[in-house]
Each structure stands twice: as structure tokens, then as C-alpha cells.
TrEMBL record:
Pfam families on file: Lipase_3
Domain Fungal lipase-type: 57-205
Record's protein name: Fungal lipase-type domain-containing protein
GO biological process: lipid metabolic process
InterPro entries to which the protein is assigned, alphabetical: AB_hydrolase_fold, Fungal_lipase-type, Sec_MonoDiacylglyc_Lipase
Signal sequence annotation: none
Length: 380
């Protein structure tokens, strides 16, 4: 699913080979793009179908280019509550409130995404729908999943409802009423992953001061603190879904999976508040994959250095060669897993595994008591 979360950041024509290895039907990717005019940003989703009749909705997060990221920051910061129409999610009660920016992102995407999903369900009436997102895209994906479940359930009864949701590095999308409504329907079908020190899983705070006016589109608004905070109000936010918090073990360099089957607001690995990674490294999909494979190894008593099941594979066919090592690492795959580019001549296992190891060692080193030394794959 991390591969799919990464795929939506790439142009569709660059994905055919790798997605086909996952069972995605060639040329099935439908691109949905829609403008959010008040924030000057374009939101993107991909809808695609697999040979096993599963339909995937992938929602893109923030785009890391200077201008696009600045505009995406404005939509992330537009956190004041908005109330969706009462029957939006087909749940009783009218206390649901959503993060305005996340809800607006879904509102502009909804017509195109819903039409694409329904078109595929006409081809495969028994098809199952899965929703995947990373970062901003994960917050939007949670809103999308509950809405699609309502729309498709009303149209098709028990068929075509959302069968699974993967939220990677998700911010909090709405208030406690939304969380309760979501969890009453999709809790058991959702997995939300949070990485150690990731800033995004902490935002918005459970109690957050938000600008109650529309933030003007354009970069200048971000640096005009007088306008940004001139009129604020306090709002509450909560996470959704079952959760797994990935915490580094300083003794082994592996990962401890802390599972919360009933959901949780816990985002810190230590008893006190963890230092938040301001660089954003722990927020990258590559870091998430590295933490996951370290936990996969730990759960099986494996040796991270020699177990081929957890070696990451860098497939250059799935990424842009000009990207940094950290960004290249965000293309996860592993031999024997759902995606492997091992048969591709352009793949370089050693380079990717070395990059993953270097990044992982850097992330766990601050947790060593009295200073830690990292050799190879393990920090002591």
C-alpha cells in the first residue's frame, strides 16, 4: 500500500510496469484533478482497478516543489471547522465538523472520483473499493472513505462499499463526532500508520487555534502573521481508525510496533513528548517503509542485514532519476512482497538498501542512551 501511496505522486505513464506487477490492470489509471480556487492549489487523485476486481482510490498529499508546497501549506493551515450537510455520511446526528482545508480538497475531487469508481463498479459489480493516502492525502482519504461508503452503499446496498482504508502519516481530519462516526463504520477496515517524530500525525493539535477567516491564496499570506492570526478561534480534532505507532528500538535498530486496535491519540514513543522532526525526514514515505521493514524483521526475529524479505528495492522505472536519495527511497518494494522490481534491469538493490539503512540509523541514533554508535544496520 505504501507503493500505491507513492504512485499518486508520479505521472501515470511512469507507473505502468511497477503497478502491473501489483496486478493493476494496464491503462486503468483514471486521473482526477480539481482546483481549489480559494487556496490556488490543484488536488489530485488516481482511481484504478486490479485484475482481482479491487478498485483503488489514491489521494495525493502535499507536492514538494517550492510554489506547490507553499500553496499546500495554506490548505493544511485552513483548520477552522466546517459543518458538512447532515446526510453527507449517512450517520445520525449533526455534530460532525471537519477541517475546512481537508474537506474542501475532498469536495472538489468528489465528483470525478465518485464517477470513476462507479464506472468501474459497473464493470465489476462485486468489486471492492480501497482508499489510500499519505499526509494531506491521508486526511482527505479518511473523509473520502466515509463519504464513498455512504454513496456506494446507498447505490449498491452491501456491494461496492469501502473494504479497506490505509492512512499513512495522517493529520487529524475533524472533530470527535467525525471520529466516532467514522470509527462506528470503518474502524475495523482502517489502518492508520504514524512514524516516530513525524510532525504531520500531531497536526492539528487535539485543541488547535485556527484562523476563522479564509486564508488568502498565495505565498504572501504565510508570512503575514498579522492577517494569519488576527482572528482566531479554538477547535477540537481527533484521529480516526485503528492505529500503529512505529517506534525505534535503540538497542537493535529495529522497530517496535505499538498497536491500538480501538484507535488512539498517542503519537509519542516515549513517556514524555518526543522531539518533533522539523526536517520532515520521518514524514517521508521512504522513512515509513524503512520503519515498517525494521518492525517486520523484529517481529520475526530476523536479522535486518541478511533477511531478503525486508530488503528494499529501488526501481528507477518507478521514480525520477533526478530525485534525492530520500525521495528515491520513497519507492518501496521487497522481494517476495506485493511489488518487486527485481526483474527490472534498472534496479539496484544494494543502493536502495544502503540508503534505507543509512536513513534508519540516523533516525534511531538520538534514542541511544549516552550517545549511540551505528555500525551497518544496528545502532548500539
Amino acid at each position: 500500500m505504501m507503493q500505491l501511496a507513492y504512485a499518486v505522486y508520479q505521472p501515470p505513464d511512469a507507473l505502468t510496469g511497477c503497478l502491473q506487477a501489483m496486478g493493476i490492470v494496464p491503462n486503468s489509471i483514471k486521473v482526477v484533478e480539481a482546483n481549489v480556487p480559494e487556496y490556488g492549489t490543484v488536488r489530485t487523485a488516481y482511481v484504478m482497478m486490479a485484475a482481482n476486481q479491487r478498485i483503488f482510490v489514491l489521494i495525493r498529499g502535499s507536492v514538494v516543489t517550492r510554489d506547490a508546497l507553499t500553496r499546500d501549506v495554506t490548505i493544511n493551515m485552513a483548520c477552522r471547522h466546517v459543518q458538512p450537510p447532515e446526510n453527507t455520511f449517512e450517520t445520525p446526528g449533526s455534530d460532525i465538523r471537519l477541517h475546512r482545508g481537508f474537506y474542501r480538497a475532498w469536495q472538489v475531487l468528489e465528483p470525478g472520483v465518485t464517477a470513476a469508481v462507479q464506472a468501474y463498479l459497473k464493470q465489476v459489480p462485486s468489486g471492492e473499493v480501497y482508499v489510500v493516502g499519505h499526509s494531506l492525502g491521508a486526511a482527505v482519504a479518511s473523509i473520502a472513505a466515509l463519504r464513498l461508503n455512504a454513496v456506494l452503499g446507498a447505490a449498491q446496498g452491501s456491494r461496492g462499499t469501502v473494504a479497506g482504508v490505509w492512512l499513512i502519516a495522517s493529520p487529524r481530519p475533524g472533530n470527535a463526532a467525525f471520529s466516532q462516526a467514522y470509527n462506528s463504520i470503518l474502524m475495523s477496515r482502517t489502518l492508520r500508520m504514524s512514524n516516530n517524530q513525524d510532525f504531520a500525525s500531531r497536526m492539528p493539535y487535539p485543541v488547535q487555534d485556527c484562523n476563522i477567516d479564509n486564508i488568502a491564496a498565495g505565498p504572501a499570506a504565510l508570512f503575514n502573521l498579522n492577517s494569519l492570526f488576527a482572528s482566531t478561534a479554538r477547535f477540537e480534532f481527533a484521529h480516526v481508525g485503528r492505529a500503529v505507532l512505529m517506534c525505534p528500538d535503540p538497542r537493535t535498530g529495529l522497530t517496535d510496533f505499538r498497536m491500538f486496535p480501538r484507535g488512539s491519540e498517542v503519537v509519542d514513543c516515549t513517556a514524555t513528548a518526543d522531539e518533533v522532526d522539523a526536517s520532515g525526514a520521518t514524514h517521508q514515505l521512504g522513512s515509513y517503509f524503512d520503519a515498517w521493514r525494521r518492525g517486520y524483521a523484529a517481529s520475526r526475529g530476523s536479522n535486518l542485514a541478511t533477511d531478503p524479505r525486508v530488503q528494499s528495492v529501488l526501481c528507477n522505472a518507478c521514480t525520477q532519476r533526478a530525485e534525492t536519495v530520500l525521495e528515491q527511497l520513497a519507492v518501496p518494494a521487497r522481494p517476495g512482497g506485493p511489488v518487486t522490481c527485481g526483474a527490472d534491469a534498472s534496479c539496484n538493490v544494494q543502493r536502495a538498501f544502503a540508503a534505507a539503512t543509512a536513513l534508519g540509523n540516523e533516525l534511531v541514533s538520538p534514542f541511544g542512551r549516552g550517545g549511540s554508535s551505528c555500525v551497518g544496520f544496528v545502532c548500539a
